[in-house]
Amino acid sequence: MDNFVYENPTRIHFGSGQIAALAEAIPTGARVLMLYGGGSIKSNGVYDQVAAALAGFDWEAFGGIEPNPRYDTLMRAVERVRAGGFDYLLAVGGGSVIDGSKFVAAAACYAGDDPWAILAEQAPVREALPLGCVLTLPATGSETNINAVVTRAERKLAFYSPLVRPRFAILDPATTLSLAPRQIANGVVDAFVHVIEQYLTYPADARVQDRFAEGLLLTLIETGPKALDDPNDLTLRADIMWAASLALNGLIGCGVPQDWATHRIGHELTAHFGIDHGRSLTIVLPALMQARRAAKRDKLLQYAERVFGIDQGEPEARIDQAIAQTRAFFQRMGVETSLADAGLDATAIDTLVAGLEDNHLLPLGERGDIGSAEVRAILEGALR
Question: What is the mean pLDDT of residues 2-21?
């Protein structure tokens, strides 16, 4: 295990009725801009709960942040922040709303000419507005981490800064009961792949992190399909919400190698072809596991045994079974596992490889040895 420094100061308010905690979580006297997405929080009662909790504050709302938040929309929110003198942001929604709010928090304080540089050039974030969040769609872990992803035209890029980590996060599983099956599935598989990206690399003598990761994978495999079958089970929603948060709050990634090639390739699928983020990952991951099976051999065998109970037979056969079981889990969640499932064919591969090259995102992988040719091979393996 490598040396590491771990800190996660986000305060979590977990459980039913926790939205009321907003009244104490936000500093007295703050001028608050609430940011949200397409309006589902108005139909499921979350907006009213938030409004009631903010009754003692000077606040306004900004809606319309898209899935895969778009730069132009976020810059309109930045203009609203600056014109209105808001000094605190409250994101109410899923990972896209929280990611978008993180960018708004940084861009509103950016001293350069174009805040896009925060993403395109990794310009340092030297100041950001404080923000908190109310999570309504567990998936990305954005509620407690320093990451954010923003889309502009056909570029989907990330930035990282501890200054945009939420000061607090409200996690009330009841807010997820109105999610559609597609949203439930997307969230579960997104969290699953977050764990995989930090776990399925090569052995690093990090037994604690491995066991944490395996526990999260087992929890998601168990609860994800059940939540689709019984969408009103609040205990299942609680387990999924907490697992998704722990999947990317930094803990299981301490001191271990990390991959993120599946996410990078998946971002190109979303940016160019509009495929849901979670589903872009389930298209890429099985093919990546197959193409990288030699480099990931030891951890694939560990994954096979500890997650799926596959401990008999020749090693290569066990790896085959683990990949097949992963694909079967995704299919049980009702998500695509190939480019063909998403209506794409081999003609898409050039576009995806070029996108990674143009954005200077190569090489990828835990060893930095996935270049254009390797990405092409992975995508060819993902065709069907």
Answer: 97
Q: Any idea what the Cα angle at residue 269 is, between residues 365 and 166, rounded to 5°?
A: 70
- Pair 19, 50 in one domain: yes
Non-local CB neighbours of 312 within 8 Å, separated by 6+ positions: 318
For the whole prediction, is pTM greater than 0.85?
A: yes
Residue 320, C-beta contacts closer than 8 angstroms, at least 6 positions apart: none
- Is residue 383 within 8 A of residue 339, CB to CB? The reply is yes
Same domain, 35 and 165: yes
6 assigned to some structural domain: no
Looking up tokens 């039913």 gives 16
Q: List, edge to edge, every strand of the sheet that includes 88-94.
A: 11-14, 168-171, 131-137, 88-94, 31-36, 58-62
Q: How far apart are CA 242 and CA 240, in angstroms?
A: 6
Give DSSP secondary structure letters for 121-149.
Answer: S---------EEEEEEE-SS-TTTSSEEE
C-alpha closest to that of 23 among 65, 51, 45, 62: 51
Q: Environment class of residue 55 by beta-carbon count within 10 Å: exposed (0-12), middle (13-18) or buried (19+)?
A: exposed
Residues 169 and 189 in one domain: no
Does residue 48 sit in the same domain as residue 67? yes
Q: Is 204 exposed, middle or buried (0-12, 13-18, 19+ CB in 10 A)?
A: middle
How would you classify the pairing of strands 147-152 and 155-160? antiparallel
Rounded CA Rg of the chain: 20
Q: What is the pLDDT of residues 307-322, one digit of tens each?
A: 999 999 999 999 999 9
Q: Which residues contact 107 (CB under 8 A, 6 or more apart)?
A: 74, 75, 78, 115, 118
